[in-house]
Structure formats: structure tokens, C-alpha cells
Amino acid sequence: MPLSWRSSALVERHKALGSKLEDWSGLGTAWTYDKDIDDEHAAIRTKAGLMDVSGLNKIHLVGPHAEALIYEATTRDTTKIAPGRSTYAAMLDDDGHFIDDCIIYRLGPNSWMVVHGTGYGTQQLSRSVLGRNAAVLYDDDLHDLSLQGPLAVDFLEKHVPGIRDLRYFAHMQTRLFDAPVMISRTGYTGERGYEIFCKGAHAPTVWDRIVEEGADMGIIPCSFSVLDMLRVESYLLFFPFDNSQTYPFENGDPPGDSLWELGLDFTVSPGKSGFRGAEAHRRLKGKERFKIFGVLLEGDKAAKGGDEVYADGRKVGVVTEGLVSKLTGKSMAIARLDPSVAVQGTKLEVRGKNVQASGIAHTLPFDDPDKKKRTAVG
């Protein structure tokens, strides 16, 4: 296991729930707890679950040129983001290939925060700051507690005035259990949810109070691995499994995924130019070697990452993640498919070590295709 060089203030809470704290992005993370992960999945889809996602990298950017460097490093038009708002963005290399995704938060006129996972976002931002009147500050103390599910807003409403009016991808500075926090209406589940950013010193109190006071509502602690189940249903990609710079191509093409292949071209703000990889990105349109797409399988076994996908006896792709939902009884997967078969209803076959099953290509997301849950008002 890689050495974890960061530490969570919630280590003892996770250990008490049975976690061995596997490494993710340099932080000992509760990948699993000593309980049925299907119960965690059901809680988030029907009630709410609390997760420690502090392994995400939190980067503060401050100074007169902070906006310009984020503009250069990401695909979004930062001039359109007002304080109190955020947006989902991608980062590209000079060849127009995906290297990371992130959420950009505007905290004030010259103050921003960029949150990303295990890609190369930190290096990209550090490269862009050179020669500019701005600073890039890595915040290893800021914890991120994610409360996700349809009852999350009902719980928070008891403690945070105005939380029900907080719009999707908006955030607010407030207090929770007398701790100063930033609450963002974002998440990685496809549900209406909130991320609670707080100092490490306050994280145990916030965690304990939510767990204790939310128990009567069915709110439970959830491990990091439940996100794999939720993201398959909700078309939320995870670096470096669904999207990466190193995924092998059997036809000899160099590695590196385009936004067109990943279905992330929407992250480029209309008319924006001048960001790293912009022209190369545009030249890659129409040259997709694969498409991220769904596979709906017959039976009650889950496909696993690396399982091969066939159509008419020809290999046409590979599964990146799969699950069987006990709520719906369906076996679903995200796959990298040949564009010719990435069409709703195309007959497919998945051949894996633990599953041999027929299925069809299926549009994403599987759950809530109109995204009404995560964007709900009131």
C-alpha cells in the first residue's frame, strides 16, 4: 500500500467502523467499513449518507492574477463565475488530452479554491502561476465531509438558515454546530447533496453531531467505495479508471483521452479560447477512438473493471466499473466502447473472470437521466 503522507482528523472514527484506512491521494481513506456496502448505497439513494472525502486536493488561489491563471489552466470561463458560485471544469495538457477535472469555487474578487482528485491539477495550477501576481496554497488541513441524499437538506435545515435556498453549485459561509464552515451544494453521487468544508479541529464535532442527530432519519456513515456504485448509475467519471493519461490502446495510438471521447466536451465554455490545450482539443473533434457509454447487463452479477466487451464476436471495448443495485435489481457498468457500438440498444456481451453475460449499450446516466434530483429547487 502506498505511504499516506496526509492524515484525517477522523482516523479514529473510521477505525471504529472497521476501516483499515487504505491510501487515496496521500490520505488514509475509509475505502470500506465493516458493514454491508449495499446498505450504504440504499441510504444515500433513499435517505442520506455522510462520507469523509478529505482526500480531495484543496488548492487556494489568491491575488490579482488568480482569475487569469485559473482561466488559462481550465476549460471554464472564470469571468462568468460570481463569488458564492462554483463550476465543474476540466484540465488539459498541451496535446488537448484530459489530465484532471475539478470544481472551481469563487470565494471573493481575488480569492478562489480549486478542488480536484488524483490527476495533475496541482501541477497545472503551479505551472500557470509562474510570473503572475498570485499565490497557489495547498490546504492540507481543510476537511471535506459530504452529506448526500434526499434527506440531507432536511437535516441541515434544522441547523443552517437558508440552506434550502442554496442553489446547485452555489456555496455559503456559515456555522454548523458552532463551527465555521463553508457548505457547497455539490457532490459525487447524483443526489441532492452538500459538501461541508471545515478545519481539521472541527471535523470530529461536525461528523459526530451529524451521525448522532441524523440517526433517527436513517443517516449513516458511508465508506469511500460506495461512490463507485453511485457514480456508475450517475455517470460520474473517476480518474484514472474511466479517464486517464495512461490507458492502453491496442491499435498503437498514444495514450491520452479527449473530452470528446469522455463526453466532457460540455465543460468547455462556449467561445472560450486561450486555455491550455484549447486548439489541440478542437482538432480532436471527430477523431474519437472510443466513447464512454453504459452497458446494461442481464443477470445479477456485476461486471468488473477490465472485463472485455464484445459485439458480434468482435472485441469492442472494456468495462471500467460495474455494480448490481439491490434497489433496482439491475446490473450496470460504465465502459469505453468503440463509437460504432455506443448506440442505445446495441447488443453486447461482457466476458470477465466473474461474469459472462449478454447486455445492451445504454445511454448514461442510468439513474435520474434528467438530473432533476441533484438540481431540485426548494
Spell out the blueprint of helices and strands:
Blueprint lengths: L10 H6 L5 E3 L2 E3 L7 H10 L2 E4 L4 E6 L3 H8 L12 E7 L5 E11 L2 E6 L4 H9 L5 E4 L4 E6 L3 H6 L13 E6 L2 E6 L8 E6 L4 H12 L5 E2 L4 H9 L24 H4 L15 H6 L7 E7 L10 E4 L2 E11 L6 E7 L9 E5 L4 E7 L16
Parallel strand pairs: 3-13
Antiparallel strand pairs: 1-2, 3-9, 4-7, 4-8, 5-6, 6-7, 9-12, 10-11, 11-12, 14-17, 14-19, 15-16, 15-18, 16-17, 18-19
The class by helix and strand makeup works out as alpha+beta
N/C terminus separation: 44 Å
What series of H and E elements makes up the topology?
A: HEEHEEHEEEHEEHEEEHEHHHEEEEEE
Strand order in space, largest sheet = 10-11-12-9-3-13
What value does the Rg take, in angstroms? 21 Å
**Unreliable spans:** none
By CATH, the superfamily of one domain comes out as Probable tRNA modification gtpase trme, domain 1
Q: How much of the residues is beta strand, in percent?
A: 25-35%
- CATH topology heading of one domain: Gyrase A, domain 2
> How would a crystallographer describe the biggest sheet?
6 strands, mixed
Helix content: 10-25%
The coarse overall form would be globular
Mean of pLDDT: 94
Structure annotation, total helices: 9
Identify the CATH class of one domain: Alpha Beta
Précis, in short:
The protein has 378 residues and is of the alpha+beta class. It has helices at 11-16, 37-46, 66-73, 121-129, 152-157, 203-214, 226-234, 259-262, 278-283; strands at residues 22-24, 27-29, 49-52, 57-62, 86-92, 98-108, 111-116, 135-138, 143-148, 171-176, 179-184, 193-198, 220-221, 291-297, 308-311, 314-324, 331-337, 347-351, 356-362.
